[in-house]
């Protein structure tokens, strides 16, 4: 990654992994880089957007941010919580990008993507679509799958069925490349296999900026 993106990564670290989803930033970043290679989006928008997209969860209490996984949570309540995290994330992203001297034009697009990445119907642009596809692919990864089975307290096969339905859901994914990756990952989950023995990000040749490359 570019040095400016590495600095954004480091600045965002204190705001990451607030929902028992350790590795979310690393995994979604890896998917974003892979999608950029396949779809030719703007890395100067997509990379910062995916790094910063979930920082807003840090502004909510643990009770709030984990409430969406409760079996009793209504769609209305889930949306309200997600909207709060999007709003907070947009503010955090704007602050971090400003502190790094990131170009205003790019910052504006990144903040707009983050402000609706979980709740906005449709896609604003290719950059928006690729960012959100990378985020959605998390749930298909080995790390994300295990996290969701634990957080929702459901059998693995139940989760596999739900994920299969999402792949077929109209407008869930922006691009066919993401659907293809999702099918590949789901096949591995269904077989009880791991794409790599330890770190999903290494499967795509990506090492988090905070970790020295081997």
What do you see in this structure?
- The chain is mainly α.
- The chain has one domain: Hypothetical protein af1432.
- The chain is built from 10 helices and no strands.
- It has helices spanning 3-12, 24-39, 43-52, 62-66, 75-99, 104-114, 126-137, 142-152, 156-168, 176-191.
- It comes from Pseudodesulfovibrio cashew.
Summarize the model shown.
The protein is an all-alpha fold and 214 residues long. The protein contains 10 helices and no strands.
Number of helices: 10
- Count of DSSP strands: 0
Distance between the termini: 16 Å
The third-level CATH topology is Hypothetical protein af1432
Work out the strand percent: under 5%
Largest sheet: none
Number of domains: 1
Identify the overall geometry. globular
CATH class: Mainly Alpha
Mean of pLDDT? 87
The structure class reads mainly alpha
Low-pLDDT windows of residues? 193-214
Order of helices and strands: HHHHHHHHHH
| CATH arch. level architecture | Orthogonal Bundle
Q: What share of residues is helical? A: 55-70%
Estimated radius of gyration: 16 Å
CATH level-4 homologous superfamily: Hypothetical protein af1432
Organism: Pseudodesulfovibrio cashew
Protein name: HD domain-containing protein
